[in-house]
Amino acid sequence: MNYNYIFFDLDGTITESGPGIMNSVAYALDKLGAKAQPQSVLKKFVGPPLAQSFMNFCGIPREQTDYAISLYREYYRKNGMFENSVYPGVEKMLADLKAGGKKLAVATSKPENFSVQILEHFHLIDYFEIVCGATMDEKRVNKEEVIAYTLESLRISDERKKTVLMVGDREHDIIGAKKNGLDSMGVLYGYGSRGELEAAGADYIAETASEIADRILSKGRRF
């Protein structure tokens, strides 16, 4: 069956956003007077919701997570958002998919307004039918919720869900897709490992951005 809609994660899939995210976390921890964390811990913040990450990776109490997020965004809004780059081959991949008749959307746990600004900054916004992200109040932040919102926004019914493929680099993308009844493709150039993606139940794995387009557009195969 052909996929008509391709949903993309943003961080770790479209852009290499790690430096800005890690610098923003380090800034927030410093302002909180919390223990500084090594890069190996800061990298874990790329992908998951912020509140969950501050609690799980840094031991920040739940009641302090709203303040931690506000400090994170203080740095991110001014600097971290653009401490970022587009992964090699991504723009050509998007162009090839669009030329092949696919409808593209972004489904990210990053706040929607930040996501739009980033895509505009890198001149990628026009490839997408819609950009769906988290709300600033964290009421819509989990990937399952964001994907559901994207499906609703595009008016994709339950019967049409098999025409949708979710592409992302972390287990949250794969699990969120599965909970919404979607197939998924994990990518290896981002922040997740093959083991993580396979354990989460990814239907397909791509090693490079060009492989995403090649497989989706290939003739005579399920894609």
How is this fold's topology laid out?
Elements: E1 5-8, E2 15-16, H1 18-32, H2 39-42, H3 50-58, H4 65-78, E3 85-86, H5 90-99, E4 103-111, H6 112-121, E5 130-134, H7 143-153, E6 164-168, H8 171-179, E7 183-187, H9 194-200, E8 204-206, H10 209-217
Parallel strand pairs: 1-4, 1-6, 4-5, 6-7, 7-8
Antiparallel strand pairs: 2-3
Helix pairs in contact: 1-4, 3-4, 5-10, 7-8, 8-9
Offer a quick outline of the entry.
With 223 residues, the protein is an alpha/beta fold. The chain has two domains: 5-16 and 85-217, Rossmann fold (3-Layer(aba) Sandwich), CATH 3.40.50.1000; 18-82, DNA polymerase, domain 1. The chain is built from ten helices and eight strands.
Attribute tags:
Rossmann fold; alpha/beta; 10 helices; 44% helix; 6-stranded parallel sheet; 223 residues; DNA polymerase, domain 1
